[in-house]
Fold each of these.
Amino acid sequence: MSLERFLNQAVSSWMSAEGPNSDIVLSSRIRLARNFKDYKFPTVFTSEEGQKVIDAVYQSVSGHPFSSIGTLELLVMDDLQPLQKRVLVEKHLISPYLEKNAVLGACILSENEEVSIMVNEEDHIRIQCLFPGLQISEALKVANEIDDHIEKQVDYAYDEQIGYLTSCPTNVGTGMRASVMMHLPGLVLTHQLNRIIPAINQLGLVVRGIYGEGSEALGNIFQISNQITLGKSEEDIVEDLQGVVAQLISEERSAREALAKTSNIQLEDKVFRSYGVLSNCRVIESKEAASCLSDVRLGIDMGFIKNISKNILNELMILTQPGFLQQYAGGPLRPDERDIRRASLIRERLNMEH
């Protein structure tokens, strides 16, 4: 396993595998924020302390007993080029914060890319587990196993009344963020999502874009996650999120059925127009590409398009991002050059399916 493999392989195993309700739920993620008791938090620590944290975390997991995770590899952010870090963000393996702001940041990645342990981000450790489809409980189980393994070897910053102590007050308590990435074109096309989002917010959950806080919902892909980490158990947070996601799945299926009954030929036309654009374009911007890919994915799920797998679209969602395009090109590209290369890559990958 090498850095090149992480950078050049667009689709992680959690994206290519089928999971429960994977026609609507792309992935489930658990992230646990933890800090070491005897070290300053990353926002104020010294370089020496930061390096000690990296060494301690890597040493604690390098001989891990988890057969499902496979080999672990340490990537130090200062050793990577800006473009390489951007690719890791686009693959959801590191956060935008670790990419741009972390001092002495690092990431420990599993061979199958389902586990990413970010080191010296806002907190000393952020354990992330990504699973395909709706598998929040399964992701939590693996995250807890890794967390328990590390905690046997180091003392965490923990308060008996409050819970785990974190750099950001919004993570204090369980330190857990549970999130689900969903493809919701039906609710967008029927103009129902804007009505649903306020109701979700009232339940202590938040709806964000594809890369989390502050990001856009490209290609009708949304991330639903918990806002509350204090006063609830991990299991309660997961149960609440699963209940809302189950309702969203039901609403999205109903919206697709309604579209099929009332606007079937218009929907089919929209899908095949987008497929035509992707198959023939010579220049395409990332927003248009994401929108067309969403339409084609919906067309596959609804049976309009039968000769393309969903996996190729998962791959193209990553491959057409700016970082990946430039990684493939071997260096920086101007925006207009990226648009030309994006179009060429999409045509090439779609032709491979025939």
Amino acid sequence: MAIDDLHSPLLNREPDIDEITNCGQFVKEAITENKKLWYLAGPAIFTAIAQYSLGGMTQVFAGQLTTLELDAVSTENMVIAGLAFGIMLGMGSALETLCGQAYGAKQLHMLGVYMQRSWIILNAMCICLLPIYIWATPILKFFGQNQEIADLAGEFSLYMIPQLFAYGFNFPLQKFLQAQSKVMAMAWVSGVALVFHVFLCWLLILKLQLGLPGAAAALNISWWIVVLGQFAYIYMGYCPGAWTGFSWSAFRDLGAFARLSIASAIMMCLEFWYYMLLVVLAGQLKNPQIAVAAISICTNLNGWEIMIFLGFNAAISVRISNELGAGRPRAAKFSILVVVLSSALIGIAFLVLVLALRNVYALPFTNSAEVADAVSKLAVVFAFTLLLNSVQPVLTGVAVGAGWQWLVAYVNLGCYYIVGLPLGFLLGSQFDMGVKRIFRLKTSNA
């Protein structure tokens, strides 16, 4: 679909839900809406998977070294970088509301100003997060992580500080481009970065045998390729009207912008931090290296699946904010219905796939038979987790598009932290039900 097709009279008209009286009319309207959603969601899904795969592929190559090094990379990737990723993605999500509604209201000049304000706030937050990277080892040990894993993960965290600041620039760039439906540019940049990253990992980790420093160098370089590639696209004039250059206006109203950014961050972080704490809790079980490796593989694969639905999250957020900004609430409601149905069908497909491949899906990540066996035993719980996670990120996108970040934050707080983690820790450690019981709590919360 060409870019102009998205704004054609057929696709830009508001669905008349009140006149849908039979299945045929519903299917016709749903097909039209799906064209809009997939135009945005397809490249956004590819972008999310490609960028998430930068860390995932690093874990795959680290798994060819030793179980301890896999645990170290997984712990840094899921806990330390996961903490930063959640905060940066959440704070950057404020732009989905602001840029999306500004674009729908034809106030294009504000998109560049909003992005620059987000850069200022997110990079200030990066400086605040630096101590977590610097003192990652004692922090992990304080939360009960295995000493060997904590020591090596802390060393790897120091190497990954450049990635932190890449996050601070990347997510505002993404939301700026998404609001204008410039999703193909993001997909191309992320795809090139992923291909180059795989080559770098092979060269630095396996060929030159640089171990964890090589893994860190590959990951840092690849993330900055993503950032610079997206900015080059914008700077070369492919976003006319939205990017008019650097402006002092970016320093105005930072307080109000920061409040919305913080609300968005809390909403997203409460979920991302849950995965982080699952890895930490697994380090307190019997055979911690096996437990951490098993749950890290499952959460890594779960993360890849979530990236697909984060693509839908981005698409529905843009659709909702654009339609509300243009004063078309019925189109927004119909978009919600269509995207929930589509994502649920994809979730069912993932459930079937995991159950069919239950004995082999861990093999690319590890050469340990014990770890592969532990992952295989999680297949049923893991499959249902994927199914339930197919809808939840999409509904979060609805909330972001409408500006309801605080509501989702309260829901996530209650489900994940008041119910999920305490019960998971109790069943996993005190009742000796192991990593399977801890991971099952993600299913119940989803």
Amino acid sequence: MDRFKNKVALITGSSQGIGAACALRLAKEGCNIILNGHKFDERGEKLIDQIKEMGQKAIFLAADLSKTKEAIKLVKDAVSEFGRLDILVNNAGVEKKADFWEVTEEDYDLVMDTNLKGVFFTIQAFVNYCREHQVSGTVINMSSVHEEIVFPHFAAYCASKGGLRMLTRNLATELAPFNIRINNVAPGAVSTPINQDLLNNKEQLEKVLQNIPLRRMGKVEDVASVVAFLASDEAAYVTGSTYFVDGGLTYHYEEQ
């Protein structure tokens, strides 16, 4: 299947985990890929090799999305590399655990600047490209089940994802006249490097699994498949939505 033949996707935070899975899934279906992270290392090299083996083009552009100027430059550089940009997947994100009364301004700013402000201005740069060249586009934001449900000790993270939910709904209306679609994907408990502590704690892991009707952690491929659907023409009438990829967790949740 070549749903994305000749198309180009920029996937932020794509050195590992969900971002890397999204890159591989889109490339498998014919998409050329622009990878992103803070720095280019062996993870990026391996992904580029895998994508090229599929017959697609791939490059890596380093950028810190918590810095607005770097976010805007990333989009401009992405367009310069391949001459076009069709799909933007805002996957880069951070979380910081702390009791609310101990959250530092530094950690708050890092979370909000990366998860919300960085996404805001990356989308803005993409929209300006689409408008200037009069082309359609698709934006997929990596949100979280915590745009909907509570997550004690992660107040800033929840605030950033709640803000992302409203931003997506607002932009769905504002960008529709330009044929730009925008949606959120909200993973639940997924086996990724960011969840390694949980995966190593059998007692805590079992408590989490008791809250998931499907009784398993999600795989990065589970998330990537939904991203691929939303990026494709099969989702041409879908905008302003959040797709939960959580095994049923969101509406079957009790804090342990």
